[in-house]
Amino acid sequence: INGLFLDISRKQHNLVNKNIYEKGLLKTFEDIRLLMFENPSFKVEYFAGKAGFSVRRFQQYYKQFFGVVPSYDLNMAKLTFAKECLKNKESFNTIAEKLGFSSTLYFVRWFENNTGIKPKEF
Q1: CA distance 51 to 76
Q2: CA triplet 49, 43, 93: central angle to 5 degrees?
Q3: d(CA 40, CA 75)
Q4: Residue 43 in contact with residue 58, Cβ under 8 Å?
Q5: Cα separation, 99 vs 59, whole angstroms
Q6: Which candidate, 63, 65, 81, 103, has a CA 20 to 30 Å from the CA of 33?
Q7: What is d(CA 114, CA 20) in angstroms, rounded to the nearest whole number?
């Protein structure tokens, strides 16, 4: 009986510690998620490094906490940023450069693929 009690006690202790760990980890990931929307030109690798994880592990935790992969949120952050820039009448070239696209044409195609309309129509 003592062995069973110790085993149960250890499992409860590990569960409590895991919850404390995950709560701290969740806060870290919430902060990283905000950082993503503030810096949409950065890549997932950058945010994984900020969190102190490999890209694969970062993606696993991110999906566990938020239900989406980080590249989805990063894409949404880029779209939000691009739409704001277009509203402010910034050039496609400037927006592409700010978001880290290799060319303006690539930005235009990406925008159309993600919104269904061309940037000039937006």
Answers
A1: 20
A2: 150
A3: 8
A4: no
A5: 21
A6: 103
A7: 38
The pair of structure tokens assigned to 58 is 């970062």
Residue that is written with structure tokens 């409590």 in the block: 16
Number of continuous H segments (helices) and E segments (strands) in the chain: 6, 0
12-51 pLDDT per residue, tens: 444 444 554 566 788 899 999 999 989 888 999 999 999 9
Residue 1 has pLDDT above 80, yes or no: no
Band (3; pLDDT cuts 50, 70, 90):
low
Tokens of residue 95, six digits? 């927006």
Whether the model clears a pTM of 0.85, i.e. scores above it, the answer is: no
Per the CB < 8 A criterion, the answer to whether 47 and 36 are in contact is yes
Q: Which three-class secondary structure state does DSSP give residue 68?
A: coil
* Position 72, amino acid: Y
